[in-house]
Each structure stands twice: as C-alpha cells, then as structure tokens.
Amino acid sequence: MSARIRESRGQEMVLTAVVAVVIVLLSLLPMLCLIKEIVAPGGVLSTVAVEAGLRSPATWIATWHTLVVGIGGTLLAVLSGTLVAVLVSLTDMRGRSALVLCYVMPLMIAPQVTALAWLQLFGPASPFLKLFGAAPPLGTKNPLYSTSGIILLLGVQYGPLVFLLVRAGLRKLPRELVEAARAGGANWFTVLVTIVLPLMTPSIMTAAALAFVSCVGNFGIPAFLGIPANYLVLPTLIYQKLAGGGPAVLGETAFLSVLIGIIAMAGILAQEVTSRRRDYRISSTSLPAEPYELGRWRQIVQAGMWLLIMLVLVLPLFGLVLTSLVPGYGIALTAKTATLDNYRFVLFEHDAANRAFFNSFWLSIAAAFFAVIVAVPVGYLIAWGKQRWVRLLNLSVELPYALPGVVLAIASLLLFLRPIPLTGIQLYNTVWIILYAYLARFLVLALRPTISGYHQIDRALEEAAQVAGAGLFTRMRTIVFPLVAPAAIAGGLLIFMTALSELTVSALLWSSGSETIGVVMFSFEQGGDSNYAAAMSVITVAVTFMLMLVTNLLAPHLPSGVLPWRD
Amino acid sequence: MARLTLDHVTKSFADFDAVKDVSIDVGDGEFLAVLGPSGCGKTTLLRLVAGFEKVTSGEIRIGGDVVSNSGGSVAPEKRRVGIVFQNYALWPHMSVAENIGYSLKVARLDKAVARQKVEDALALVNLQGLGERRPANLSGGQRQRVALARCLVAAPSLVLFDEPLANLDVHLRASMEDEFAAFHKRTGTTIVYITHDQAEAMALADRIAVMDHGRLAQLATPRELYHEPANEMVASFISQGILLPADVLTGEEGGHCKVRVLGRELVVRCRPGERPRAAARLCCRSADIEISADASGFDGLVKRAVYQGGAARIEFVPAAGPDLTLHFEQPDPVVLESGAQARLRIKSGWLIPATGTARDDAG
Ligand SMILES: Nc1ncnc2c1ncn2[C@@H]1O[C@H](COP(=O)(O)OP(=O)(O)OP(=O)(O)O)[C@@H](O)[C@H]1O
Ligand SMILES: [Mg+2]
After folding, report:
1. CATH number, span A46-336
2. Three-state SS for A440?
3. Which H/E stretch holds residue A223?
4. Distance of alpha carbon B25 from alpha carbon B4, whole angstroms
5. Which of the residues A181, A244, A431, B79 could staple to A514 if both were Cys, CB 3.0 to 4.6 A apart?
6. Ligand 1 pocket check for B143: Cβ under 6 Å
C-alpha cells in the first residue's frame, strides 16, 4: 500500500523536478545572469556599466529611435489590423479564408525577408520597377531607408498579429449586444463606434502591447532599412557594438539589452493598467452577430482588401523572386538575362551559405523536436496541475519569448562566455549556444497550443486510465501524449518555420562555422549582394509555404486558433 | 402602438425550415405569447420580426407598413421595435443610465430631455438611484429590469420579449410577471412574448400561439387552448393532455356528441358540425378522470403511483388499450398503489377536430 503511494508520488515528483530544471536552465538562469552583469559585473556591486551606458549619447539617440519606430509601428499595426479584423469579422465580405490566409502570411515570413522584399520593390535596382521603366536612376536613395520606411514595414509585419487577437475577440462578441443597439435605432457605423470598438478595447490593448514589444525588439527590419541610413535603434546598436568590440563590450550591451527589456515591459505594464480599468468580461456562448450587408459597397471593400494583399504580400514577394533571377545589381530582367545562377550559387557554391542551410535546418528541427517533447509535460503541469506555482511556471516560460530576442541573446552570451563550471565545456563561439537560445526562446510557441489542447481534452480520459491502474508515466505515454500530440506537433512546426530564417538571436551569437540562413542573408545584403540574399529568401519562403500546407493537414485534429493562418 | 401581421412567413437556414408558413395577426395593443418546445423556431420568429433575420418567403407588416418580404427588409434600427433578450444583453462598458439612454443618444435627443426620460424609465422599473451602477454590479432581476427600461425608453410601438424570465428564480419570476402585466395595462403596447412556460403564457397573454417544428400549431386564447386544442400536438403539449382513440357515434348537437372510448360510450364536447367517424382522437385532462365502480368504467392496472404531497399522480394502463397510459391525481387518502387493479371513468373530454389544423380566428 504505502509502497504504491510512494511509487505514484515518486513519478509525480520526477516529472515536476524535470520540468523545474528545464525552466530554470532555459528561462531563469539567463535572466539572472543578465541582471547580475548589470548590477555586479565580475561579482562586485558596481554602477559603472549603468553609468557608462547612461552617459553615452548613442544610447539616448537609439532609445529615442526605438521609441519612435516602436510607437509608430504599433499605431500602424493596430489601425490596419483592427480595420481588417472588423471588415473580415463583421461584414458579408466574400472569400474570407483566402483573405485571412494571405493577410496573416507576413507574420510567417521573417522580418528581414520582408525588409529585403520591400527594398527590392522600390530601390533604384528594382527589377519590378524596371519592368515598367519606372525605376529611379541608379544611385538614388531607396525611400525605405528612413524612419517612415521602418515604421511602414513594422506595421506590415505586425498588423496581422493585431488582426488575429482582435478577430478572436470579435468572434466572442455576442450578437445580442449588437442587436440590442440596432433595435435601439443605431445604424451599423454607430454600433461599431459605440458598442463594438469599446467592447474590443481589451483585445486591442493586448494586441497593441504585443505589437509594441515585437516592434521594439525587431532586429531584421531596422537592420536592413536603418543601418544603411545610419538610423540605429537599440537592437541594431547592440549588434554594431558587439560586432565591433566583441566580448569586451558585453557589459555595455547588457545594459542596452536591459533597456530594451524595460521599454518592452513598460508597454506590457501600460496595457495591464489600462485594461484593469476596463475589464468588460463578456461571458456568453451566443452566436456571433449576423454579418453586416455591405450591399453595393461589397465589391469595393473586397477590391480594397485584395489591393492591400497585393501591396503587403504579393508585390514584395514578386519583387523578391524577380531580384533572385537577375544576374547582378541593377541589371534589367528580361527573358535573356533571367538566370537561376543565384540559386545555384547559394545552394552549392558558397561555403557559408551551404553551412547556413545545414545549420538552420538542424537547429530548427532540434528546437522544434525538443520543444514538443518538453511542452507535453510542462503543459500537463500548467493545464491540469494542482500546484499553485504553475502560474509562475507559465510566466517564466513566456518570459524569454515576451522579451525581445536581443535580450535573450545577450543573456546567453553572458551565461556561456566562460566554459560551463565543473565540465569545462565551451559553448561560446559554437553552434550550440544558438541551439540553447532557440530552445529557450521558442519553447512557448509549442507550449501555448499544447495547453489549449489540454483544455479541450476531457480530463476524465486520463482519470479513466488512472482508475485502470496506469501510473503517471504510463498515462503520459499511452493516453496524454497521443491526445495532445497534434497540438504540440503543430506548435513544433510553427517553431521550425520561425527558427528557420531567424536572425535576431543568431546575428549576435553566430561565429564562423555556425552561420544561420538569416545571418548569411544579412551579410549578403550588407555586402551589396541582394540577388543572393533574395535567392536565399525565396528558398526559405517556399519551405515555409510548403510547411504551412503540410500543417494544414493536421488542422482537423487541432484546437481552433493554433494555426494562425487558418480562419 | 402598432399591429403586427405575419403573412405566410417562412425562414430556411440552408435546407432546414426553422419557421414554416406562419401567419399571425397581432392586434394593436394585444399581448401575444408564443409557446412551444425547444427548437421549434420561437426565437427565429422573433428575430424575423425584429429584422435580424430575413424572411425566405412571406411578408411581415408592422403598423400597416411592409417591413420584410422576400424582396427586401427594413433595417432593424428603422423598425421602432423594442426587444428584451433572455440574457439581457446589457452593454458592460456603459453604466445603467447610459444603457437606458442609448437609443435617445443615437436619436440625438436633447440632453436634458434624455436625462429626464432615463429617470422616468428607471422609476418605471423601480430602479431609482441605480443609474450610475455598472450592469456587472446588479442582480439578475435588476438586470432584467434595466433591459426592460432600455427597451421602453424609446416608447416603441411593438415590444418583443425572448424568454425574459428564463434566467430568474421562481419568486422573482412571479413578481416580474406581475410587472409585465402592469406595464402592458398601463402603456397598451403591442407585445410578443416568447416563453416555454405555459403558466406564464396563460397568466399574461391575451392569446397564445403554439408552435411546433416551425409551424403554427394553434393560435387561440388561453382558455380555448386548454379546453379546445385544435390538434394532437397542442392537446398533449398543453397541461399534458391525454390522447385516446375514439369512434364518433353521433353528429354534433349543442356542442356535444357521443363517442366510444376504451369500449365505453360517453358524451364529449366537440366542434360544431362534427359527423360520425372512426379513428378519431379524444383529449382529456387528468381532471376529467375519476375512480368509478359502476358499469361506465373500464378496468386496468396501476403502473405507477407517485405521492406528491396531498395527492398522488397515478399512471394507469387500461386493459382495453395496453399501450395507452392515463394519468390523473388522486387526493389523500391515496388508495391506489402500483400493481393494483382499478376501474376508472372518463367524465368528459374534447374531440380533436378532424382537419387537425389551426382555426384562424385572428379575424
Ligand atoms: N443561424 C442559424 N443557422 C442554422 N440553423 C439555425 C439558426 N438559428 C436557428 N437555427 C435552427 O432553427 C431551429 C429553431 O431555432 P430557435 O432558436 O428559433 O428555437 P427556439 O424555439 O427559440 O428554441 P429554444 O426554446 O431552445 O430557445 C433550431 O433547430 C435551430 O437549430
Ligand atoms: Mg429561443
């Protein structure tokens, strides 16, 4: 009897302990390390790093720039995302799922690819503009190398993020609330302004906070658009310092990365404070409202939406493909000049690019695989566990993802700069440090769908197995894992897609031999070889699309909302 | 005040008819209850009237104006109907006063006038002084009153209620019922009131429309519905009527005719013009059944006896019709027990009309 109790307790404790170790390693340790470096570099309390950072004018300029593009990008994303969400959710527009798929796509494309694609579209060398002979003369400055260019692309990149959250909110809006207003004499526009949007403020606020954190932490877009114009934001400033100074400047960059962290947290806190005052919890299981009939406006709205898709998705990708087919900078694309040489070069000839494809693929697979394996027990504890500390657990897993990637990258550097104590293993300057950072950063992408998977499963299924005599590990293996596997695997695929062309983390952590696709793309672009960068981008975008299609096959087994691009 | 007319209204969702060929004429100032089992299309009917759904065919007129037909539909905000939802549908981001004053604000009424009207509406539903509260801080009954006040403040000519009391407890229900009745008397507004509670419908309504599978089964006064159900569905739905096979032996005379039921002959009420026929149906209520020792009774077995305090509900299977079940109440002292043999008599009943269709007495 007591032996059996001990056995089941034991299994539970092993599970809890393993989860705790993983969380400490991946999330708490790097953050603590970062804070220690700021407060007490080298083990002695000191404010030198902070003071040096505060004194440097570059810090303040970059902070100002970060705020400008962060707030500008957020505003644009919130406006466009909310508008699209309202039109898609509340009107009788046709072709909704295709539209959602296309509109959400930029979210699945790496920011630096977006940046590259837009640059190719409007620059003087643009093969697209050359098709019409509309390209500005060579040597003209690309209009996107500017503050407004960065804001525009941040808005394009994160508008879909806002869209997804607001749309989820609108789906939960009970139709009676809208209908009561209409019966009270309000027309559709009045209902929208006085009822729908006020009720959606919590969703919009959450979305704005998320968009703000993403904009502030974004590296790819300001790196491609800002560095050429010498317009530095905090992440690119950190990159430049680290690229120039190496480990010697780690203390300084640690301060800067904490600064980004603080700005991001300020955004989240602002959202918390405003939404605490406006907690309109809607608790109803009613049907969503009947779509508003646009009537003769329908064609116009539909045309407008597809025009938007053309602008934010089709044209940039088209520009990207065109560039990847041009033999060299500034050459016009004709049937004669079109070539696949760029693809051949990056796939077979260029050593670093070769290594990058290899590295990125196995890093993404490893990160995805690991995350799926870990997400199942962690999700189990969070969704079904009875302990009180699970909320904290959830929070600490979210932290590395909620904070900008630069913060995690610097933290990883600090953590592994010296060999790991006792073992003497050196991760710094190897590909393993990138893997570590990926694991920490992306775990939550698999965890979230897994948790919603758990919430959809009737706990009784597991309890039935328990009654049948199965121990915790047996239940996990035979009952729980098969049930949540689709959700966890979908999360894994999301991780693979995100990690494949990841740049922010690897730009700070790479070393010769451990290049990633993002890094090589970036160095091609910086070296003026846009054609090679475009070819690599096209390949990753194609892989992403293919994976999205494959993931769609899982859709019938998934909780709704796991695949962002599915309506 | 307005008259509401539904003229052969049909509403289909895909290939499923939620409302089928329903014609109802609600008079000016009338209180009409719509009654029916779950899923029979009551809410859909209401939403058609309010304009939230479009009719598939047929026509709806409010106060003489066509508001819906297959050609088009007047927008809900132009119909001047008030609606009270089952889940209240109060806007959580507005105070009680803002909720109530919403339609006045939308109509751009003068602020002072609007404030006065809101005060009056609050007084009307006995909620003075609660204007600044948020709906979340109100009890269920208070929310229901706010919803009522919100719908009344614009003085709509037609008020629609969708099971307004379904979420309230029994006591609150009774007092709200009184308030609805008083409100109707005071304002004389035309009301369409959906409920699945027969007692509520009987207590409040001038007439009741019983719906079944999207069709109008019968439209009649509460008294008529109880005593003279037009078809088997209404007969069994209202107060658990008992249906028994019967042969009509004589033609109607003075509202009565002679029938044979379970092998016994008796005189029952019927429609004018009934003729002798076989395979008719008799509707009787538990009050029509009594224990009898003489030759007019029929034998059978007590299947179940459930004591309910002061009386027992007896379920009885007659020997002449083993697949029928009759139920009635025996007051204390209860002598019948399950398994016992007994002899019962039917005192009276109502002969279900042969056509089985609703008699349109809307006039
Ligand atoms: N938007 C819709 N699409 C498809 N079917 C619908 C829709 N709305 C209602 N129905 C169907 O129409 C039928 C009638 O629904 P309705 O809501 O009118 O029933 P009800 O009489 O109000 O039921 P209850 O008493 O349970 O509220 C139901 O079978 C329902 O499933
Ligand atoms: Mg209903």
Report:
1. 1.10.3720.10
2. helix
3. helix A220-225
4. 6
5. A431
6. no
Cβ neighbours around A297 below 10 Å, total? 13
Residues of A in contact with B78 (CB under 8 A): 185
Q: Are A153 and A316 in contact (CB under 8 A)?
A: no
Cβ neighbours for A395, distance < 8 A, ≥ 6 positions apart: none
pTM, two decimal places:
0.83
Report the DSSP pairing between strands B256-261 and B264-269: antiparallel
Task: Check: CB of residue B89 under 8 Å from CB of residue B50.
Answer: no
- What are the residue ranges of CATH 1.10.3720.10 in chain A? 46-336, 340-567
Atom index in ligand 1 nearest the CA of residue B36 equals 21
| Cβ atoms of residues A554 and A489 within 8 Å | yes
Residue A390 confidence (pLDDT): 67
Given ligand 1 and candidates B34, B40, B167, B215, which is best to mutate, with the most ligand atoms within 8 Å of its CB? B40
A300 CA to centre of own chain: 32
Among A249, A220, A253, A252, which Cα is nearest to A238's? Answer: A253
- Residue carrying structure tokens 């597991």: A462
Q: For CATH 3.40.50.300, list the domain ranges present in chain B.
A: 4-227
Q: Is B153 helix (H, G, I), strand (E, B) or coil?
A: coil
pLDDT per residue as tens digits for the range B256-276: 999 999 888 999 999 998 899
Which ligand 1 atom sits nearest the alpha carbon of residue B45?
A: 18
Q: Do A184 and B85 touch (CB under 8 A)?
A: no
CATH 1.10.3720.10 fits A340-567, yes or no: yes
CB contact under 8 A, A181 and B150: no
Token pair 């194609």 is at which residue? A542
Dig out the tokens for A349 from the structure. Answer: 């000839």
**How far does Cα B116 stand from its chain's mean position?**
36
Average pLDDT of span A527-534: 89
| Residue A503, phi then psi, degrees to nearest 5 | -125, -45
Give me the architecture of the B241-349 domain, per CATH: Beta Barrel (2.40)
* CATH architecture for the domain at B4-227: 3-Layer(aba) Sandwich (3.40)
**What is the separation, in whole angstroms, between the first and last Cα of chain A?**
52
- Assess: ipTM above 0.85: no
Residues of chain B with CATH 2.40.50.100: 241-349
